[in-house]
Design a protein that fits this description.
Elements lengths: L16 E9 L8 H15 L1 E10 L10 H12 L6 E4 L2 H4 L5 H13 L3 E4 L10 H34 L12 E6 L5 E5 L11 E6 L2 H17 L3 H10 L12 H8 L8 E3 L2 E2 L7 E2 L6 E3 L9 H14 L5 H15 L4 H5 L7 H8 L2 H7 L6 H29 L4 E4 L4 E4 L3 E8 L2 E2 L5 E4 L10 E7 L6 E8 L8 E2 L5 H4 L2 E2 L3 H7 L11
Parallel strand pairs: 1-2, 1-3, 3-4, 14-17
Antiparallel strand pairs: 5-6, 5-7, 8-11, 9-10, 12-13, 13-14, 15-16, 16-19, 17-18, 18-20
Length: 522
């Protein structure tokens, strides 16, 4: 434009479109690393005239489902709640959005964003995500390819694990009473006995089972011999062991389930049995049929004679034949008539009733089994059920955090005695779940649980949403900042509000170490 005086007027700068970026990395450290994705998205945004105003990140997270991805969950929550101040989300490619085994699931999350007025764009794909027929076809193909790559990788991992099992190596799981896990190098040389919750740090190392202390070995032999001679039930055997003051391999009193696990463990006759259960591609764990089990004989020195072990298995089949669902529920109903009420303790102490663990395995939870026989459990029972589920979630979050730290440059170890994480041998962290309690006026509250002992250096409270199913946010604060805050509100003052984060990335950042060689001396 030219003014009346003939002097050109400068054109107003074009307004840049506000956009967010979503980045995810599982274990692809090179092509799909977070930094590479951010760089590619930044170049794309510059060309398209976008201003990146928000970042949603899932570092060290599998793309197989939504459950373990707080970054994507937060993105969906912000978009659907109207809190998002952007109109586009840029993702590196279709596989970073997810490797969902049902490609419709990937489409659903994208549709939820589009329905709320937010577009999804893939900067590294060769198609424009514009809703055209060609674009949709290519995107569906890409989603199928992303899902198939996970299936192929899962099969390769399974084949590799099976090969190591046939070589006599251990693939996860606790050693068991009377046994220990021995760490060996690539040449088979012993490196030391692993303590509980200790794991190998080198990919080339392997783990084998060896015999444990002589007193534990003697106890294992006594359990088999006494069970076969006296034909006592597993519950009676557990009571005998507890009366003697003997603790299980977990350092706890014996239960019917722990005795059953010992009596059916083929490790005690020198065999290794693998693939009894599986949970591939982040699916629910399933019990595999016996023909799919992998059994390798003579991988370690036997503790129990084979004839004694076979007699114990025959006796178990007679005492505990497999019950149908109706038979299990009938036994539970009869127990209810006798006691007038039900609880996990009552069920586990009834010799003529399957243990609570079998009801949970068969029906999903004790609450569900109670409902099927028309028993209304107490509020406390439902409270315990929710707490159990949250404890499983807490353990998974803790394990994920340890894995992310160790994949980086830090070290993390869990102390089972104090339930604290020790990071880089420098500071301790306590991670607890915060159930959401809604007041009569509709305001959420969370108990901080910060009074626990020993006092950690850093306190992490995972604040749940009112449904107690999804994480709202993470409070990450020094323990001394929590003094006097036994109950937390939505807003707790400037000091604690500054400690609220959408994920655990600040804690991961604290664990990172810089190499000495990178320091510059002036």
């Amino acid at each position: 434009m030219v003014s009346d005086a003939g002097t050109p007027k400068p054109s107003a700068p074009r307004a840049r479109t506000r956009a967010a970026q979503y980045v995810r990395m599982s274990t692809d450290y090179q092509t799909h690393s977070i930094d590479n994705q951010v760089d590619a998205i930044g170049d794309y945004a510059e060309i398209m005239g976008y201003e990146i105003v928000a970042t949603y990140e899932d570092s060290g997270r599998s793309g197989l489902n939504l459950a373990g991805r707080p970054g994507l969950q937060r993105l969906l929550a912000d978009v659907e709640s109207g809190q998002a101040d952007f109109e586009t989300v840029v993702v590196y490619d279709v596989s970073r959005w997810g490797r969902f085994q049902n490609i419709d699931e990937s489409a659903v999350y994208e549709y939820r964003c589009q329905k709320a007025g937010v577009r999804i764009e893939f900067c590294a794909e060769q198609f424009a995500n514009d809703g055209s027929v060609g674009s949709d076809v290519l995107k569906a193909i890409k989603r199928s390819m992303a899902a198939e790559q996970s299936r192929v990788l899962s099969q390769k991992v399974f084949i590799g694990q099976a090969r190591l099992i046939r070589m006599g190596f251990r693939q996860g799981g606790k050693a068991g009473f009377g046994l220990r896990r021995l760490l060996v190098d690539r040449h088979g040389r012993a490196k030391g006995i692993l303590a509980p919750y200790e794991y190998k740090s080198l990919q080339t190392d392997r783990i084998v089972l060896v015999l444990g202390p002589s007193e534990e070995i003697a106890t294992v032999r006594w359990i088999f011999d006494h069970f076969v001679r006296t034909k006592k039930t597993e519950l009676e055997m557990a009571r005998l062991l507890n009366k003697r003051g003997i603790l299980s391999d977990l350092g706890r009193p014996w239960t019917r389930e722990s005795v059953h696990s010992l009596l059916t463990n083929e490790n005690y006759i020198g065999n290794s049995v693998w693939n009894r259960h599986s949970a591939r591609l982040k699916m629910h764990q399933v019990r595999n049929p016996p023909e799919q089990w992998m059994r390798v004989e003579n991988v370690l020195e036997p503790i129990v004679d084979r004839k004694m072990f076979d007699r114990a298995q025959s006796l178990l089949k007679v005492i505990y034949r497999r019950l149908t669902n109706d038979e299990m529920l009938a036994a539970l109903s009869a127990l209810l008539v006798r006691h007038g009420a039900l609880s996990t303790r009552i069920v586990n102490n009834a010799p003529d009733c399957p243990p609570a663990a079998r009801y949970i395995w068969r029906f999903g939870s004790m609450v569900r089994a109670y409902e099927l026989i028309g028993y209304e459990p107490s509020t406390n029972c439902r409270y315990i059920h929710v707490n159990t589920r949250l404890e499983i979630m807490r353990r998974q979050i803790t394990q994920d955090l340890i894995a992310v730290i160790e994949r980086g440059s830090g070290r993390a170890a869990h102390d089972p005695d104090t339930d604290l994480l020790r990071i880089n041998d420098e500071f301790t962290v306590s991670i607890v779940m915060g159930r959401c309690r809604v007041s009569g006026f509709g305001y959420p509250r969370w108990l901080s649980k910060c009074e626990r002992r020993p006092l950690p250096d850093i306190f992490v409270l995972i604040r749940m949403r009112p449904d107690d199913l999804t994480v709202r946010d993470y409070l990450i604060a020094p323990s001394n900042e929590m003094a006097g805050h036994s109950e937390l509100h939505t807003s707790n003052g400037a000091r604690l509000n500054a400690c609220i984060f959408p994920d655990l990335s600040p804690l991961i950042g604290l664990s990172e170490r810089s190499a000495v060689e990178s320091a510059a001396w002036l």
